[in-house]
Design brief:
Chain lengths: ~270, ~325
């Protein structure tokens, strides 16, 4: 066994919204989590369990109240969102959010290819890169390699999520963050995007964290699963035990912890 | 006859305002930032140029100084917006007001004459034909520079910032810094236009920037309407904006020739711009077919008379029905 290093570490992270008011909401409480290199972690939990807050504090959308966050071994607790991007590849729930609609597909890829680099007065996209982008786009099997100069805004939701996924992984990130990235897609497209996600994660041995509402996906994908509730991890399972999980098991866990099940989870 | 003889003057003025409108284009279209600083920074550019030229400084140096003064104004607005969290419109208004005092202090009076007969200026309305030629050169060079810049890594980052700030941050782009850079470039161009305007008309005036944003927007809108259908190339679109400025001034001249009360011109300009700004909204709201499609797609058609009536109802009512069937 080779030595694995932690790619994401949260140590004693706490986040409370509207502190001191009637609307006070503890979103994360003394939250500890370590994700090892190459691990594919799925995160489930009901509404208000703290999944989104967890994602957002990792990205740096808002600062934490207490605790520390490490990405790829670097302390990023105080880094603003754009500087953490160096370590992160992200795909959002909303297909609109991951691409720049008025820019060409290849320009979007070129932007992503420079993630974490200082943006200079050199050309925004080079000839040699275009060929590389073409081969990468061809892998999606969507024919986008023939439409590289088309504006990203003209793509469908599924195409955009696939493109965003490609952008997130074009430059290998220390951590790939997927925030319910198939939730806004129709089932067929969602399955396709998810399949590509697994393929690309496996091929590049990406450390991945995927938040999902779909329990079946959460069980099938990845090699570790955590369930969150009220800002804590209430269930953490990996390896053989995870493989043998069923949706019923997870539902049972929810009930046991008296968790509120969201309609979306039951329906999915 | 009067109109024809006024035509060169209108074209020259149009080119100057076209240059100013290119500045507006950068904030309004590229950065998606409605920047009202321009009403002040165009005057700042004019004031700096006028003061320096009348003090005997070389006119090119004076124009460079005007350019830098404009960039400083943009920097201030950018700082208000990004570091102090003030909404875009308000940041611009604050800077505009600050510039009012600054401009008065620069000039030392409300009005400063820069006679082409006394001072070495680059363009003057005394020689409108020559002015058109020089301005054409100015506009071409600036479009070329901007085309190059917005193709660079930094420039692409600025475009992405205006287009999708969330995505930009996720790609490691410093959104705040990019907004400031964009505002500085925009206001630098606007101030340069102010410097050219002062030379052309032969005086700087504290009121010369009033309503500049409306003229700039008008030029941007006309330019977009002209060029959008033909070509989406960035340089061509900028050229379209400059052309928009020219058309604006030709129409302006024409309206004056027809005997329109000049007191009403600003009001008319603003109303025309308001309507053109509304068109994309109306298009989306009433003509995209989105609402009708959505109503038709809704599986259980609630009205007992059948789904056809639902599809034919005014679009405004359609979302309501969609809402009811959801419940």
């Amino acid at each position: 066994m080779c030595e694995k290093r932690p790619m994401l570490e949260l140590k004693g992270v706490g986040k409370t919204f509207n502190r001191g008011s009637v609307n006070e909401k503890v979103a994360l409480k003394d939250f500890d989590l370590t994700v090892e290199e190459g691990e594919f972690l799925t995160v489930i939990g009901g509404n208000g369990a703290g999944k989104s807050t967890f994602m957002n504090v990792v990205c740096g959308t808002y600062p934490v109240d207490e605790g520390k966050i490490f990405l790829g071994g670097h302390d990023v607790t105080r880094l603003p969102e754009y500087r953490r991007a160096k370590y992160l590849g992200r795909v959002f729930q909303d297909p609109m959010m991951g691409t720049s609609p008025d820019m060409e597909i290849q320009e979007n890829l070129a932007l992503a290819y420079r993630r974490g680099k200082v943006r200079s007065l050199m050309p925004g996209i080079r000839k040699a890169e275009k060929e590389f982008f073409r081969t990468q786009l061809a892998r999606l099997g969507l024919g986008l390699e023939e439409r590289m100069t088309v504006k990203a805004g003209l793509l469908s939701g599924g195409q955009r999520q696939s493109l965003t996924l490609l952008m997130a992984t074009l430059k290998k990130p220390d951590l790939l963050l997927l925030d319910e990235h198939t939730a806004a897609l129709d089932p067929k497209t969602a399955a396709k995007v998810l399949a590509f996600t697994e393929e690309i994660a496996a091929e590049n041995k990406l450390t991945t964290v995927m938040v999902t509402h779909n329990m079946a996906d959460a069980i099938r994908c990845g090699n570790r699963l955590i369930m969150m509730q009220e800002g804590r991890i209430i269930y953490d399972v990996s390896g053989e035990e995870k493989k043998s999980l069923t949706v019923e098991d997870l539902l049972e866990r929810f009930r046991a912890s008296a968790g509120e099940l969201s309609d979306r989870m039951i329906l999915s | 006859m009067g109109f024809l003889s006024a035509l060169p003057g209108a074209i020259a003025l149009g080119l100057i305002w076209g240059l100013m409108a290119i500045g507006v284009y950068i904030t309004y279209k590229v950065l998606d930032f409605a920047d009202l600083t321009v009403d002040g920074s165009i005057c700042t550019g004019g004031a700096v140029c006028a003061v320096l030229v009348t003090a005997g400084v070389n006119v090119w140096v004076a124009m460079l100084a005007a350019l830098l003064a404009g960039a400083a104004a943009g920097l201030l607005t950018g700082v208000f917006h990004t570091l102090m969290g003030i909404p875009a419109i308000l940041s611009g208004i604050l800077t505009q007001l600050i510039l009012w005092s600054v401009n008065l202090k620069i000039m030392g009076q409300a009005n400063l004459s820069v006679s082409a007969r006394t001072y070495g200026v680059v363009i003057s309305q005394l020689e409108a034909g020559w002015a058109i030629l020089i301005l054409f050169g100015f506009v071409s060079v600036i479009i070329g520079l901007l085309y190059w810049f917005f193709g660079t890594e930094l420039g692409c980052g600025i475009r992405a910032t205006g287009n999708n700030p969330n995505m930009s941050r996720a790609q490691g782009i410093n959104v705040g810094l990019n907004k400031i850079i964009g505002l500085m470039i925009s206001n630098a161009l606007v101030a340069l236009a102010g410097a050219l305007l002062v030379q052309y008309q032969g005086f700087a005036d504290i009121n010369m920037g009033r309503g500049a944003i409306v003229i700039g927007l008008a030029a941007v809108i006309i330019g977009e309407a002209l060029v959008n259908l033909i070509c989406r190339n960035f340089a061509v679109r900028l050229a379209g904006v400059a052309l928009g400025g020219i058309i604006y001034y030709i129409v302006y001249q024409l309206v004056i020739e027809l005997g329109m009360d000049t007191d009403l011109l600003k009001m008319l300009s603003a109303l025309v711009v308001a309507i053109f700004l509304a068109i994309p909204y109306w298009k989306k709201r009433y003509f995209s077919g989105f609402h009708r499609k959505k109503a038709a797609k809704e599986p259980p058609a609630p009205p007992p008379e059948g789904g056809e009536t639902a599809a034919q109802e005014p679009p405004a009512a359609a979302p309501l029905q969609g809402g009811q069937s959801d419940v």
